[in-house]
Amino acid sequence: MQPASETKHIKLLEYTLGGRNFTLRQRDEHGQSNGTTLWLGGQVLCYYLASILEKETDTSNKNDGTAKRRRVIELGSGVGLTALALYSMGWDVCATDIEPVISTVLRPNVLANVDMTNIGSANEATIECKELDWSVPPERWAWRDPLRVTQRSPQDSSQPTDLEREMNSMDGTRRQLGPPFDLIVTADTLYTPSLVEPLLRSLHHLALASMPSNERSDKTGPSGKLKTQLSCPIFVAVERRDPQLMDSTFEACSRVWGFKIERIRSIKIRKSLEKAGLSWERDAEGASAWDGVEIWKMRLPGSALGLS
Questions:
Q1: pLDDT, tens digit (0-9, with 9 covering 90-100), for 39-58
Q2: Residue 176 is part of a domain; what is its CATH number?
């Protein structure tokens, strides 16, 4: 398997995840590929998540359909690799992005790789593609619309596309996905300063919305000590192209937004890639293509929400 940075010219990517084969279409037109091609952070994140979630998924799902299926939302799903990987592991997935990414690659890839007629049944997970613009304040978000969390502007009131009609036709068999979520993920979404505040605000809102009301405060544990309640985990994968931007962003995660943050050790990422059979060559200096990828785990404590 080649690093994503070396496959942007390939129109169709072949992946095997969770025992399923996926074909992903990507578009790299005139070098404008933000969101419409696979990036290295998303490629690494999907294999890391597969390695840490595999055992949990295997032990918690029941064949009789009585187990509570876990729910995940991805911000900036792009071509859909991570979303499809989680779906293949039995998660209900809400994959989000903005136009034109949704209509050109994300929704077509989901429809091409998922049997929508069986989706949402007792033995099959759900996957949805929804438009979510982080620049829209969370108080204006709505989860009932099957196609978008944030509404289009009045200037963009075009008729539904054929792909949207096909997704709508499945509404009777799909579970509508919204908070609370059991997992929040995003990859390759921090590459310019203008996106930092909207993204962190969105992650903060989703973490708050995904903390059950009876767990929204610190509680006393068996030892009598105060036990801090935490939100669901958030995994953020980035490429450290701009060290100053990355440092200031994760400092803001902690100082401004109150997240508890932890950088996943490189050895853990390397082992997850090796487990998937990815052994990328190193250059003369011993560096590999994915050495610049970082994965951060974040949680929001109840005290940071003002609920302790």
A1: 999 999 999 999 998 655 54
A2: 3.40.50.150
